[in-house]
């Protein structure tokens, strides 16, 4: 039997790719496409909006259908609605929305007591693998003579609303934990003075239609290492999220990561 899924934010850039890939996956059955009622395409067929032709599923803000998993790529308020929908439906939740505030994060942790939740700022396989590689690098370089400066650069499309990306922040968190760094700064201007060793700096670039790119720099005296991971389109995130929904459906309540999903 296919796993029944719902998508929250179904008319968005990511939502459209989830509708397209989810509806052609034989192990899944797409049963609901949720959208904000003020969206200009609200009520239209989700397949038409995604550019794959009519699916017979409309963009709605409520449904009588039951589903085993709901995937959220929306905005913080939409994420809040997705958590409530998941808890009410006793469904698994795949939480992909970034830029969440502490109140939303607390709600996710609380909901994980009653439903399974996969929560990750990036559903991409190569991004999650690069996170592992950064942890290895950070561990190896934490006590290197002369110190290793960590800077994280990210590039995304001009429409992105949060900054820096959730993925950049997660890279920084993982590296900081390994290296014992507590200071995180965002860009530099004026005369900030000599760079201290105990900080991680984030630099966010917003141009064109870039679907996402991260470079993590480990700068030593005399040599530099850079790890770059780059999406060429959004399907790496969409297919990772669908994989996460299959993984989480029917699992016991708790918080799961993409490492759990991907076996990393
Ligand atoms: N974790 C990942 O792998 C990953 C990958 C890509 C994007 N993202 C994140 O996903 C989010 C969405 O990205 P996007 O580029 O698709 O944005 P988008 O603006 O194109 O789409 C968001 C959609 O959510 C809808 N929405 C707003 N309020 C809603 C509500 N209350 N209920 C349901 N839907 C609602 C909007 O109308 C819009 O259609 C962002 O936070 C982004 O950073 C995460
Ligand atoms: O397009 C976006 O927005 C993306 N956001 C995620 C983030 O903030 O980390 C992941 C990549 C795409």
Topology diagram in text:
Layout: E1 3-8, H1 13-23, E2 28-34, H2 46-50, E3 59-60, E4 69-72, H3 76-89, E5 92-95, H4 102-111, E6 116-119, H5 125-141, E7 149-156, H6 166-179, E8 183-186, E9 199-206, E10 213-219, E11 224-230, H7 235-248, E12 254-256, H8 258-262
Parallel strand pairs: 1-2, 1-4, 2-3, 4-5, 5-6, 6-12, 7-9, 8-9
Antiparallel strand pairs: 7-10, 10-11
Helix pairs in contact: 1-7, 3-4, 5-6
Keywords: Amino-acid biosynthesis, Cytoplasm, Diaminopimelate biosynthesis, Lysine biosynthesis, NAD, NADP, Oxidoreductase
GO cellular component, one term: cytosol
Family: Belongs to the DapB family.
Order of helix and strand elements from N to C terminus? EHEHEEHEHEHEHEEEEHEH
Helix content: 25-40%
- Helix/strand-derived category reads alpha/beta
Provide the CATH topology of the largest domain. Rossmann fold
- What is the arithmetic mean of pLDDT? 98
Name of the CATH superfamily of the largest domain: NAD(P)-binding Rossmann-like Domain
Q: What overall form do the CA principal axes indicate?
A: elongated
Name of the CATH architecture of the largest domain: 3-Layer(aba) Sandwich
Terminal-residue CA separation: 28 Å
Low-confidence stretches: none
What is the radius of gyration?
20 Å
**Could you give the count of β-strands?**
12
Domain Dihydrodipicolinate reductase C-terminal: 127-262
EC number: 1.17.1.8
GO molecular function: 4-hydroxy-tetrahydrodipicolinate reductase; NAD binding; NADP binding; oxidoreductase activity, acting on CH or CH2 groups, NAD or NADP as acceptor
Catalytic activity: (S)-2,3,4,5-tetrahydrodipicolinate + NAD(+) + H2O = (2S,4S)-4-hydroxy-2,3,4,5-tetrahydrodipicolinate + NADH + H(+); (S)-2,3,4,5-tetrahydrodipicolinate + NADP(+) + H2O = (2S,4S)-4-hydroxy-2,3,4,5-tetrahydrodipicolinate + NADPH + H(+)
């Amino acid at each position: 039997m296919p796993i029944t899924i719902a998508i929250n934010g179904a008319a968005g850039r990511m939502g459209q790719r989830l509708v397209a890939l989810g509806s052609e996956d034989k192990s899944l059955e797409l049963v609901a496409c949720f959208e904000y009622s003020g969206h200009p395409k609200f009520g239209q067929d989700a397949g038409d909006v995604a550019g794959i032709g009519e699916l017979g599923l409309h963009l709605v803000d409520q449904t009588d259908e039951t589903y085993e998993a709901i995937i959220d790529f929306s905005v913080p308020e939409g994420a809040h609605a997705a958590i409530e929908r998941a808890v009410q439906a006793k469904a698994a939740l795949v939480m992909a929305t970034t830029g969440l505030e502490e109140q939303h994060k607390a709600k996710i942790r609380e909901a994980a007591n009653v439903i399974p939740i996969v929560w990750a700022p990036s559903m991409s396989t190569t991004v999650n693998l690069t996170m592992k590689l950064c942890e290895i690098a950070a561990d190896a370089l934490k006590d290197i003579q002369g110190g290793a400066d960590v800077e994280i650069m990210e590039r995304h499309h001009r429409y992105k609303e949060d900054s820096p990306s959730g993925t950049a922040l997660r890279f920084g968190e993982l590296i900081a934990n390994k290296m014992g760094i507590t200071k995180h700064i965002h860009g530099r201007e004026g005369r900030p003075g000599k760079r201290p060793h105990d900080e991680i700096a984030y630099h966010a670039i917003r141009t064109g239609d870039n679907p996402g790119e991260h470079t993590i720099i480990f700068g030593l005296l005399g040599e530099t290492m850079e790890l770059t991971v780059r999406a060429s389109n959004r399907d790496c995130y969409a297919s990772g999220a669908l994989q996460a929904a299959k993984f989480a459906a029917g699992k016991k309540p708790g918080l799961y990561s993409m490492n759990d999903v991907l076996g990393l």
